[in-house]
Design goal:
mainly alpha, about 90 residues, 3 helices
């Protein structure tokens, strides 16, 4: 396996990790923004008010995207990693 092959696998792995993290990070950003606006409007500065909804949103989005995430990871391993290990 040459250096170019290693770089290609690493680049593809980083792209897959970005695709896997985007839904969770996006929803967490939106929930944090909404909670921050609510806190600013009501002058309530409670730390658990930001933590609990974010964690709930992360769990819901993770559960909802679990199937597509698994498909991406399995496809990456079947298309990129396994053929290189097998020497193909």
């Amino acid at each position: 396996m040459s250096e170019g092959d290693v770089i290609d696998v690493l680049r593809e792995g980083l792209w897959i990790s970005l695709l896997l993290s985007l839904p969770i990070l996006g929803v967490t950003l939106v929930v944090g923004l909404v909670i921050g606006l609510i806190q600013a409007l009501t002058s309530v500065q409670e730390m658990t008010l930001t933590f609990v909804p974010k964690m709930a949103a992360i769990v819901v989005v993770f559960w909802a995207t679990m199937g597509s995430s698994a498909t991406l990871i399995v496809g990456f391993f079947q298309d990129q990693i396994v053929p290189r290990i097998a020497g193909g």
